[in-house]
Amino acid sequence: MKALRAAFPLTVPIAAGFLFLGCSYGLLMHAKGFAFLYPVCMAYFIFAGSMEFVTVNLLLSAFNPVAAFMLALMVNARHLFYGLSMLGRFRNLGWKKPYLIFAMCDESFAINSSARIPEDVDRGWFMLFVSLLNRWYWIAGTALGWLVGGLLPFSTKGIEFVLTALFLVIFLDQWMDRDGMRRRAPGMIGVLASLGCLIVFGSERFMIPSMVLMIVLFVMLRPYLDDLKTTANAGGAANINGEVNA
Hints:
The chain is an all-alpha fold. It has helices at residues 2-31, 37-45, 49-60, 65-75, 78-84, 87-90, 96-102, 106-114, 123-149, 161-175, 181-201, 207-220, 222-245. The longest helix is centred in the N-terminal third of the chain and has 30 residues, at 2-31. The radius of gyration is 21 Å and the shape is globular.
């Protein structure tokens, strides 16, 4: 199909990341003693990478559905915001719309919201294949990671650090961005909010309060963050004009 041929090349970079992270998740589930169906079913039904890593500890800790619900809501709260921006694109798509809403992730949103879809390609089918391919990359990576975990000749102890390493790399990439303060401000807010809640609530209960505090702070400070973005864009445009004039 034309839609599949148009969507597939755009998802190949996502496949590289999802297969690797999915394998890490599958390895972690195997190391924690879960049967094959647990990670595969979680990847199939939950399809929220960071939340799936968090769920590993939730399954191994005391039963607390309220805390689990609040944590899932906070971890995936960003979906509420960029999901609203896709309602226009999902309009009049019929049976495809529920699946597109369920299968939306950061990577699918990035492609579906910005891709220039060829005129001879159906928009609904294009977005469906983007979401479908990305979802199955993750499921396949998870299954492969669990299967490989049983064949490794060495201990996988400590594999749970992969999620921490992932977020650390993202944070460092943002911190070292050339835009400086504009990109560093959100990271500083997150670190300070987490540190404050860690001191107040302790290591066992700081996660949910810190997520709530971050959301509140981002909403309150949005005008300031938007001003930083405008200033950075203006500075970048001035630098480009200066180089051209020179």
